[in-house]
Amino acid sequence: MKRFNLWLAQKVTSGVATMWCAYLFAGIALISLPKAIQSGDSIVIVSWVAQTFLQLVLLSIIMVGQKVQSQSVEKTINETHIASLAEFELAKEARELAHKEVIELHQLSKDMHKLMHDVEARLKG
What we know:
Mean pLDDT: 93
Oligomer: single chain
Number of helices: 4
């Protein structure tokens, strides 16, 4: 049952978070507009605008806006992730190169010590 509820919630959310749904809700809300105007009561008209039109239509529009913002944030996160991975690879390559250079410097140091030892031995001997 839980899986069904999640599936249904996703379907409803996907459907409501469209501009087509906002247009449909606007159409539904406009059905009652003539009666609100005919009443001549400003409270009924304000109530229609606030409770009927705005709540119905803005629900979908806000959800569409959130979806667009979410996609933008997701794109930024993916770009940042890709850039971070590229920098990590560069850092890894730099570390490997530095390690090789340290090994070479260590070998040069050994060779110099041996050469100095040989020169010192020749001078003594």
